[in-house]
Amino acid sequence: RERERDRAPEPEVKELVLDNCRSNEGKIEGLTDEFEELEFLSTINVGLTSVGNLPKLTKLKKLELSDNRISGGLDVLAEKCPNLTHLNLSGNKIKDLSTIEPLKKLDNLRSLDLFNCEVTNLNDYRESVFKLLPQLTYLDGYDQEDREAPDSDAEGDGDGVDDEDEDEEGEEEEDDEEEEDGEEEFDDEEDEDEEEGEEDEDDVSGEDEEVYIQDGEADDDDDDDDEEEE
C-alpha cells in the first residue's frame, strides 16, 4: 500500500496511437480504465477480430479501427464509448447492415467510414446507412448531398502554423530586399554627389584660368600705353 501511495500518478493521456502493433489473440490488449481521459485511439492494422476487451472510455471521441478483421460485436462500442463522434471501420470484414445496426445507440456519432468493406457493395448502400443511422452527417467522407467532409481541426491548426511561418519568412525576405535597395540608392546618391563635386571643381578651375588670362591681357595693354607716352 505504501508503494502505491508513493507511486506518481499516471499522466492524463488523451491521444494513443497503436498502429501496426500486432495483437496475439485478435483482441485489444494493455488498455485499462486508467486511460479514462482518452479522446483519440488508433489501432490500425493490429490484427483485431474483436473490440470486446475495450475498457470504459467515456471521453473517447475518435476511434480508428481500419485494416483489421472485425466482423461484428460493435454493440460493445455503444456501451464502452458512448460519446464517439468519429468511427473508422474501413478494411474490415463487415458484410451487411445488421452488423452496424448497434451503432444506432451512439447518439453523437457524426462520421463513419466503411471503405473496402463488403457492405459497400450492397444496392443503395449509402441511402440505407443514412436511413439506419440518422444521426450520421458523413459516410465515407461525404454527406448525403455528396459534399466532402472538412479537414480535421488538428490538420487545420497544423496548416495555419505553416502559413504563419511562411508569412514571416516572406516578410523577412521583403525587409532584406528593401534594405539592399536602400543601400544601393544611398551608394548611387554618393556617386552622384562625387561627380557633381568634380564638375564644380573643373568649373572653378576654368574660371580662374580666364581671370588670369584677362589680367595678363590688361598688363600688356598698360605696357603699350606707357611706350606711346614716351
From TrEMBL:
GO molecular function: histone binding
Keywords: Leucine-rich repeat, Nucleus, Repeat
Domain U2A'/phosphoprotein 32 family A C-terminal: 122-140
Biological-process GO terms, alphabetical: regulation of apoptotic process
Compartments (UniProt record): Nucleus
InterPro entries xrefs: AN32 (IPR045081), Leu-rich_rpt (IPR001611), LRR_dom_sf (IPR032675), U2A'_phosphoprotein32A_C (IPR003603)
Predominant place of localization: nucleus
CC per GO annotation: nucleus
UniProt-annotated stretches for the region Disordered: 145-230
SMART domains linked to this entry: LRRcap (SM00446)
Entry similarity comment: Belongs to the ANP32 family.
PANTHER family given in the database record: ACIDIC LEUCINE-RICH NUCLEAR PHOSPHOPROTEIN 32, ACIDIC LEUCINE-RICH NUCLEAR PHOSPHOPROTEIN 32 FAMILY MEMBER A
Function: Multifunctional protein that is involved in the regulation of many processes.
Protein name per the record: Acidic leucine-rich nuclear phosphoprotein 32 family member
Lineage, highest ranks first: Eukaryota, Metazoa, Chordata, Craniata, Vertebrata
